[in-house]
Design brief:
The protein has about 270 residues and is mainly alpha-helical. It has 8 helices and 4 strands; from the N terminus they run ααααααββββαα.
Length: about 270
Amino acid sequence: MVNYHEWSKIHPDELQSRVYESFIDAAALKVFDIYRAFCYFNTSLELYSTDNLGDYKIPDKEVRLFIKGMFVFNALFYINVCRDYMWQMLYCFCQYDSEEAYDHKKLEEIFEKEDLQNTLNELLKKLLNLATGTAKNAISQIIKVKSRIENNYANEYKITEKCNYIKHRGMYKIIGLDINDKTAFEQLGIKVRIDLFDQGQIECDPKRLMYKEEINVEEIYKQLIDFKKKFIEDFDELIRLVIPNNYIHQNGDFQDIMRNFDIPDNFNI
């Protein structure tokens, strides 16, 4: 059983920074981002499942459903953020060892590009072609695990589709809240018949109304619980492929620590 709280220890502090190559430190920093976003995701799921909302004493079923919907939407948002951060982590891993990796602004500008996923895929292909031996096997496994995670996001659970809908199209209508008739008088079942005298009667179909796409928050909650288990296992495997096993236990010696200072090259420590 994976303890995802171990991810929080993967962070390049002053004793670990520059012990490994800079791209490892940059990737480790993104692991911590994913850990924090995943905690928000998991907390949202836990709040959804509780009937004790502290000082909020809410007898109204619709209000409680509204609040539960908020927790589900929060969970969807943060788990989708984890996917974006995963791409960023792998992008960092694909970079050369360079001091520029510590320039947060430059990295963040790259992360904001919409084609980051395509860029990442191309980088992984190049690394796979250049690598040999165990390194080639590791890159191949990274691509395999990454594909498995993305398949869960896009196809099996359609998390990406749901988040994109909210971001680009509008809010979902929660089943059980408000009216969302798709045609006129749908709830009442009213039909209109007109007598055309010699031609008999005809039934007039109701016209379409403006409506929202609907979701069942309980179903989404159950899907996210199932997704959570798979994500923890898959992402933990990805971390072990990207971050050295002893990263969190490897503290630098005096010379490693001094690398965190801008010391002239001709000065011998």
